[in-house]
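Hi V.,

You were right to ask for the full record rather than a summary. Here it is.
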Amino acid sequence: MPKLPQMTAIEAEKLLLQAEFNLIRSKGSHRIYLKGKSRVVVPFHSGRMLHPKVVKQVLRAIENDAA
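Predicted structure:
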């Protein structure tokens, strides 16, 4: 299994917006994106890398949406 890329919240947001996900709301330091039935929650903590599970969730949502 290939290694997941390291990603910041800003990079994840850029990928989601390019895949036409919409920012539906923001609560605290978390932003929630939605497209169809796919919902992705991205924690925004300044300058920190996202946890690999969050990166996997973002990439899977984009991949499933493209299929």
